[in-house]
Design a protein that fits this description.
- This protein has 85 residues and is an all-alpha fold.
- Helix content is 58%, strand content 0%.
- The termini are far apart.
């Protein structure tokens, strides 16, 4: 019987110690994750604002070769369908 009481005492002590460590460590971990996300968002915002082009201009960097001349402009894609009633 004394072994059982000793086991319960040690188990409860470990439970409280782990609980206290989690209460202390988890907020710090979440805060660091939030800070990293905020820094990445700030960097993305700075990058986008520095890459902004003047209004009214369009710049095309790449036109795929396989799309040129495949279909004339007068033709569109037509898909056969059958109406079901």
């Amino acid at each position: 019987m004394p072994e059982f009481i000793r086991f319960l005492f040690i188990s409860i002590a470990i439970l409280y110690i782990v609980r206290a460590i989690i209460r202390w460590a988890l907020p710090m971990l979440f805060q660091s994750v939030v800070n990293k996300a905020q820094q990445q968002q700030q960097q993305q915002t700075n990058y986008n604002s520095s890459q902004k082009q003047p209004t009214g201009r369009v710049k095309v960097d790449y036109v795929p070769e396989d799309r040129k001349g495949k279909f004339p402009d007068s033709e569109g894609e037509f898909v056969d369908y059958e109406e079901v009633k």
